[in-house]
Amino acid sequence: MVISCGVFSTRSCCSRLQPPCLVLRRRLCGATACSDSVNGSTSNKKRNSEKEKVIVISGPTGAGKSRLALELAKRLNGEIISADSVQVYKGLDVGSAKPSASYRKEVPHHLIDILHPSQDYSVGQFFEDGRQVTKDILSRGRVPIVTGGTGLYLRWFMYGKPDVPKPSPEIISEVHDMLVDFQTDHNWDAAVEFVVNAGDQKASSLPRNDWYRLKRSLEILKTTGSPPSSFRVPYDSFRESLNSPDANDDFSEDGSSGDISIQNIHTDLDYDFLCFFLSSPRIDLYRSIDFRCEDMLSGANGVLSEARWLLDLGLLPNTNSATRAIGYRQAMEYLSKCRRQGGVSSPGEFYGFLNKFQQVSRNFAKRQMTWFRCEPMYHWLNASKPLDTILEFIYDAYEKETETLVVPDSIRMNKDMRNSREANALKAYRPRNRHFIGREDCSSVLEWIRSEGCKSEVSCVEGAAI
Fold it and tell me: Is Magnesium one of the keywords (predicted)?
């Protein structure tokens, strides 16, 4: 089942995959084709060094991956490709923690500010855009550094996308006509029932108001006669290889691994991917996220100002990709309530909004960590360690041609909680703000809502984007 922002629910995934702990063959990231199980033929094997290298840096929200990618790009003569489902939108800067203009002058960034918030963006589109940008960067003799926390974007980027035929213009028009009245009337449930009856039973599990994917489902049905779920995702072949008896023999009883034999990998990735997951101890990460949410609400040009702009464009919360994004949905809902109340908000209502913003952000970080625990190609790094030490490790990993990459204990991040004390501390965790503490601390925000937040004012960004 898909969860918003490209993170899947993977309750049983980790137990099936048993990802390696400390040591991972670099050849796993640049896998060669293996024996064909159908016709018995053997493909030509490539050395890992013959494949061009692509660095992937991910991590939960607020972990510091953007700064790490920036500094690494300076050292390696690299360019950064954003794998963030919100940073693609113009005008959504604060809530998406978009790299600053000064950062983007220092190092070229790609797939940022490419769409208006009224447009939808899909994982398939990211695959096409990301792969093309990667080719362009490599053609200039520079190093592609893909960074972001949208797990599904990164999975498709590395392993490939399903081979689903593109619909004809006639089918696109036909599907639009079928669903336009449902969307105009905001009748999501009836639209889902319509698509389910057309042949896609899994349409009922789509995130509410994800009209893009609902339309895409119907387009695939009309084009092929089959639902989207009938098309195999390339990642599944890789996962099945790890689940095979031969692959499981490479794991010890405690779930750790030695070298994973390349013969167990039945997929040929296009690049030599070096993948890193940057995170902090969970309590520290949660505290950082809470402070970050506060920072996003401070000042006149924070996430509330951007949410006002979205409302002024005529967009409603939770109705498309941009307005479903964490932070923007909550801010739009809060401002909409304030507008219905004539521009008035109590301190209690503001703190209720802030608490919800913090909670959904922490929950999203938890889902990201769950997702990437099931991704065996990532080496986990501790964001609380010195940045220079982490940079040096990744730099050396890129420059060296060693078969085995070992993360030193000094910077390695454990994927799982190791003791009950940490688990109990998480259960007892409570937000502790540093800016918004008492009723008077939010007075400037409430005044902004009264004087500016409930006024309709579309900025020049919107005009330039249309």
Answer: yes
Write down all domains in the chain, each with its CATH number in brackets.
17-162+232-465 (3.40.50.300), 169-229 (no CATH)
Residue carrying the six token digits 């960004």: 461
CB 34 within 8 A of CB 266: yes
Q: Which of 213, 233, 215 is nearest to 160 (CA)?
A: 233
pLDDT of residue 1: 37
Tell me what the mean pLDDT of segment 385-406 comes to. 89
Residue appearing with tokens 């030490």:
389
For 320-372, the pLDDT digits (tens) are 899 999 999 999 999 999 999 999 999 999 999 999 999 999 999 999 999 99
Write the CB contacts of 307 (distance below 8 Å, at least 6 apart in sequence): 95, 328, 331, 332, 334, 335
- Alpha carbon separation from 55 to 78, 127, 158, 402 (Å, rounded): 10, 16, 11, 16
Return the bridge partners of 90, or none: none
The total number of residues written for the chain in this structure: 466
What SS3 string covers 9-51? CCCCHHHHHCCCCCEEEHHHHCCCCCCCCCCCCCCCCCCHHHC
HSE of 191 in the Cβ direction (CA atoms, 13 Å)? 28
- pLDDT (tens digit per residue) in 415-435: 876 667 778 888 888 888 999
- Retrieve residue 40's tokens: 């018995």
Pairing of strands 404-406, 23-25: antiparallel
User: What residues are paired with 381 via a beta bridge?
Assistant: 278, 412
